[in-house]
TrEMBL record:
Recorded catalytic activity of this chain's protein: beta-D-fructose 6-phosphate + ATP = beta-D-fructose 1,6-bisphosphate + ADP + H(+)
Active site: 128 (proton acceptor)
Essential cofactor(s): Mg(2+)
Protein name: ATP-dependent 6-phosphofructokinase
Organism of this sequence: Faecalibacter rhinopitheci
Amino acid sequence: IKKIGVLTSGGDAPGMNAALRAVVRACKYYNISSIGIRQGYEGLIQNDMIDLGPRSVKNIINQGGTILKTARSEEFRTKEGRQKAYDNLLQNEIDALVIIGGDGSFTGANIFHQEFNVPFIGVPGTIDNDIFGTDFTIGYDTALNTVTEAIDKLRDTATSHDRVFFVEVMGRDAGFIALNSGIASGAQDILIPEQKDSVEELCESLERSEETGKKSSIVVIAEGEQLGGVYEIAKEVKKRHPEYDIRVTVLGHIQRGGSPSCHDRVLASRLGIAAVEGLLENKTNLMAGIRSNKIVFTPIEEAIKKHNEIDAELIKVANILAI
Ligand code: F6P
């Protein structure tokens, strides 16, 4: 391997830049070239690439977003699009790819590998923490801190007005952000897709808290939760408790921005280097992850298909603390 191409794809996540920096510098360390591909797979198709060296990634370890930009490429889903991408790979003499992204990005890489046998290693970058084969994805810790800080602020106003706040957080089909930020911000209840919830149970929890003298509450709701969404849930609770002064806050894309936390910067740095080292050892079709604080490589198909379980102990913690 003489030249590695690197791209960021799918939803951005804080720490992607730190991962890019690590890939580029590891390439230099091992005396190979690196080239950045802009806009995810779009850049591969449009031949939008830039040679990178250690200094071109200076001052980005602390920056949110991705300087390479990212996209969810429709054209890469087509055979013609992937053929164009492959032609550009050959033209740019790229021998292998590092794909920084989530499961959609890995699915694309997997198909590309099957069709054209291009070696690649995935680096998990998504705030959702929904990728099998790693304890943490890049961006998750930062997003948790952002959410916790935001809910702390909501708590101030909820307390002043004796209100019930329903806060929707991201996570796509996974409840990791909701469960952990809910515990950290002292939520009265946390609704996640992995658990079967009901409006009745939610009301019981709010009633219990009232009986112990609580006058305001925070309920954290994962966007993938299955009771019809945060507004519907708020409406149903209001029907049963017209006396509650309810407000809804959807945190939205604020969760994807911001300077990455120390944890995400270190994780991204480790995984970026691991990806380059893996490719140099002729590993391919794998994702670099971290398990029990050790670098591990997981077959990409497992990373895509399997799911991390929600930790039952964390649910117990949330329940005990919401007494
Ligand atoms: O996967 C990251 C994520 O932020 C999810 O939590 C969310 O469901 C989705 O991306 C939002 O996507 P978009 O930025 O395309 O609206």
